[in-house]
Amino acid sequence: MGLFTPALHRQRHQFVIDFVKRKKPKKVLDLGCCECVLLKQLKFHREIELLVGLDIDGVQVKKKMHGLAPISTDYLQPSYDQLRIELYQGSVTEKDARLRGFDLVTSIELIEHLTLADVELFSEVVFGYLTPEAVIVSTPNSDFNPFLPGLVGFRHSDHKFEWTRAEFKSWAMKVCLQYGYEVELTGVGQAPPGQQERVGFCSQIGVFHRLGGKERYNMFDEDAEDVFSYTLLYSIIYPSLHDNNILRRVLMCEVVYWAEKLKRRWIAEETGERDDTYDLCQAKGEGGECFRASERHVDTEETQTAACGAEMKTLVDQEKGDGELFWTHSQPDSEKWRRRVSVPLAVLWCCCPKVSVLSGSVSNLRLLLMDEPGVKLSQDGSAVLLNHQEQDLDDDEEEHRADFEDSGYAEARQCPPSAEPAEDWEANV
Ligand code: SAH
User: Directed axis angle between helix 296-320 and helix 244-271, to 10°?
Assistant: First the structure.
């Protein structure tokens, strides 16, 4: 209709999003989710741990449901947030125990598609059985219809009714009395200047809150049998650092990244060889100005690595005694003597904030890395071993590397530490 800016459907969804931002519900259910437009916006609000959509029309739901899947950053830089998304086919007039006990249920432009008898069932199912803490119901306000140019009859051919504000209020009050809720009536879509009082909002909205807090949930049907009447169409669990496998992969990615960096700096300092990142940092120091914005992070990282390098040296100097402990000959019998650089876990843990946050303690770090094929630990498990020359891999390691890359997490290995975008990491190698 072009009467509203932003468009009316956007304003309705924004109303829900604003509510979510304020109240931070953990479990949200969208009734009549259709093509999942609202759910796709809600999934970015990561206080939500369970996001569920229900619609009677499975074909509509299936059309775009894959847009709810995690994107690559969700895998490459997972957080501790947890999110599960589920979509069901079923009718709001039927009960299903899986949808009980939510913090928020939304019903946006749904009830007017139901017969009045089904609206009664809807009320009973939503307010009497699902008993969420809050419910947002939106429906057309027929008082506003004269302002909609060219409208004859209802706003949509499938609408069974369109209520005046008085009718909506009377239904809402009845629900409150019957099921123990209170309601605030509001809306979106402003009337023309001077008309707001008289006609109200284009879409009327009731925001219901359950009285009596959480205890009430248990009062209903405590002994009732669980009913499962909906069909699960889609279910996805977002990657989270609460998943131990994911935590280990991210940790390994960080450890490999920082260990290599420390190694390069240490070698540069030991041999006086040029280290590109080191030069970059030096030159920057002299020139005063940063290079490109994408290289700016190098400065912080270099300072950090420099500090770590110094610490590593101290540790090594203290330990080496014979001057050989830092450099190990891994295959004394073989003709090919290879040198390895050993980066103590204690150094990695102290120097890399993300490593210490993820692992908690050095001993935990050791445990988490122990069975990781992508990281080689010293025999006593106190240090990460790296080949002095990257190309100097033995067969064993080639195999490990292949396993690792086959694990589907190869991309993650290339990932930068969480604070930096991918180009930065690339600029740095
Ligand atoms: N909430 C969406 C779509 C509203 S259109 C939005 O804000 O854009 C109404 C939706 O309700 C349709 O997708 C329709 O399939 C669904 N619907 C109609 N009757 C239903 C019922 N009994 N149970 C569940 N969904 C229903």
Answer: 80
